[in-house]
Amino acid sequence: MNRDAIIEECNKFKGMIVVVNYHHMKEKLINITSKKNVMVNEHLRNHTYTHLGGKADFLVTPETYEQVQEIVKLANREAIDFTLLGNGSNLIVKDGGIRGIVMNLQKLTSIKTDGTIMVAQSGARIIDVSREALGKHLAGLEFACGIPGSVGGALFMNAGAYGGEVKDVLESTIVVDREGNLLNLNADELDLEYRKSNIPDNGYIVLEATFSLKEGKYDAIKATMDDLTYKRESKQPLEYPSCGSVFKRPPGYFAGKLIQDSELQGEQIGGAQVSLKHAGFIVNRSDASAKEYIDLIHHVQDTVKTKFGVNLEREVKIIGEDL
Question: Which CATH number is 210's domain given?
């Protein structure tokens, strides 16, 4: 039975309590943001790069820092579950969706430059920030020209590629904590490591990031970005929905090589497939479910562990409920 049917059944026995509570929460969210920024029972597959995921009870897209703070405070007061979605690029949402409030910061996209300092809001794509840096003849973000995630997501996991990573250029950030307080943090307060930060452990919501870059020559910066873009487009399966690179690089190995040597390339469960183009990617080849996608991840991990004794740690985050 799906969620809507369950609510209907509950209403038969409990009057209008569930609907009234839903209406109550929707109105409170609209009062904080606006009607256009509040969606009820929204399919999250429309908001993830994998095209996977069930419904969110409430999907909210705030437009100001103050709105983000107020939504967090509302969730605390009402004791309702709260989830930050990001832009859905390095994420798998399960088929049962997500209960409570889901926040997407896709409308916080400002990018500003002052000399060699760039300030980008968390909903901006890190690709667009790197392109803005190119336009200002600023070097340091070339590595990010092929990373599909948002600025917030890039800080969340200390995103990197081709020898560069966020911690190399990050100066500071503004976040909201679990209580809805606004905090200004220096980069060294985030404990940035390989594909890791303390942002999830502290429950921070990134609102903006300040990058310290260097003056460079446009042609040299562009040549580097063109080269990295070619490498990405020629090696990665961009023609299918995916979450990007599924696994972290295990010490002393390459995840894709281990998967390929395990003869898993092309392996398929339902509509999910280990990419024929790059074994480190799992693609949604034909209307996969989240369960199929996750089952294939586990199958790859088990096979590599059995054959090589290496534990493949997921880079992608999995959230939500099973059906």
Answer: 3.30.465.10
In DSSP notation, 170-234 reads EEEEEEE-TTS-EEEEEGGGG--BTTB-SHHHHT-EEEEEEEE-EE--HHHHHHHHHHHHHHHHH
Query: Is residue 259 situated within a structural domain?
Result: yes
pLDDT, tens only, 163-211: 899 999 999 999 999 999 999 999 999 999 998 999 999 999 999 999 9
Q: Which two tokens stand for residue 12?
A: 């038969």
29 with 91, same domain: the answer is yes
Query: Active site residue: 195, 232, 249, 314, which one?
Result: 195
* Domain-located, residue 229: no
- Tell me: do 17 and 98 sit in the same domain: yes
Q: 197 is in which domain, residue-wise?
A: 111-220
Q: Which residues make Cβ contacts (< 8 Å) with residue 226, sequence separation at least 6?
A: none
Any catalytic annotation for residue 245?
yes
Clarify whether residues 288 and 213 are in a common domain.
no
Q: Is 150 a catalytic residue?
A: no
- The question of whether 315 is a catalytic residue gets the answer yes
- pLDDT tens readout for residues 248-267: 999 999 999 999 999 999 99
Catalytic residue among 245, 262, 275, 289: 245
* Half-sphere exposure (Cβ direction) of 36: Cα atoms closer than 13 Å: 2
